[in-house]
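Standup notes, structure subgroup. Blocker cleared on the zinc ion input:
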Amino acid sequence: MLVFLYASATHAGELPIFDAHLHYSHDAWESLPAKDAIALLRKAGVKRGLVSSSNDDDTQRLLAEAPDIVIPELRPYRTRGDVSTWMRDDQVVAYLEERLRKYKYVAIGEFHLYGVDADLPVPRRVVRLAREHGLMLHAHSDAEAIERLFKQDSEARILWAHAGFERPERVREMLRKHANLWADLAFRSDHGADGKPPPEWRDAFLEFPDRFMVGTDTYIVERWYFVPEHARWSREWLAALPSDVAERIAYKNGEAVIGAAWAKQK
Ligand SMILES: [Zn+2]
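Run returned:
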């Protein structure tokens, strides 16, 4: 009995994770059925996740399997190949409009967009669609593209994928400038490489405890098997921060920003 109590207490103390950067694309579901992908999330203690896929049918498949975990976002990619061409492809807009008529989402993204390309007609249309439908944008972008997106719509709400792979000082500048900018930490390790954040990242987290989220980025199927290890590692470096900050970055920010927006959409 004592052993049992101890085990459940330990489990209850495990930090829940909101994973803000998941993909479940065509080649993933062929070798990893939705049921198994969800089992990996549950094993990792991922309570909720923001999922986008190339193409969107794959996100819908995962959502049907676990509506309690999956929060869908609409990716402007019908296939993996759209990554580098979507911003010049008018048909992407028609695809997005068709999906938006059919299903509900919390965001448009994750999309890849850099520099002046942000002002091309297709991305401009995407920003307008997000505004019309009350959706966030999830941008894998440099700081310049983020600036251009905010210039198009000063009230846009943007989740900055990978924190732009920018240095923490630059990320802080951007967060200071834009109140509606959040950053996911997916697919980078500099913020917790030695099991704790280096001083420049610690300062960023303490200045903006409400603006960061963790994410795995399962862009290839192999990354799905990394989800539990990523959650474990995240809990490790988060433990070096004050516990209220750790809880926010682990899951409360995801719930407050994405979870709340999804509750409104549904
Ligand atoms: Zn991604």
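Discussed briefly. The beta strands are 17-23, 46-52, 70-74, 107-113, 136-141, 158-160, 181-184, 212-213.
Next: hand off to the docking folks.
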